[in-house]
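Structure tokens please, single chain.
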Amino acid sequence: MIVFFDSNVLIYTVDDAEPLKQQLAITRLASVLGTHRIALSTQVLQEFVNVTTRKLKNRLSLSEVSEHLANFCQFEVVGSHASSVQAALHLMQQHQTRWWDALILEAALRADADLLVSEDFAHGQRFGKLVVENPFLDSQFNRAL
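Here you go.
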């Protein structure tokens, strides 16, 4: 199974201003390590850097961010190109999503992911075989694995 993580989940793994979400994000990421393939996109990595160095209450140092990026880059990282941007625009129109979410969705689909772990889509929403999981909902509802 391929599990695609959105940037919001990765950001919460380091956001100590949100301790409950931090623990849930860490637990969810840990639950798939070593048992499933993990995919991310370059957009996810870029958003992680931007938010953790500029927007968090307790910002990370560049060396801390570098260490996290080194770990994340061990996963499958899907890049973007002109045709992926065009495909995201089509998904935005087709599913009435916001632009940045459409880019995430496009990358998850291109990674052939089975599960998209994100708080930005409706929990349980399906895009073909891809199912969305919000890891911050009540645990009895959020385990697709």
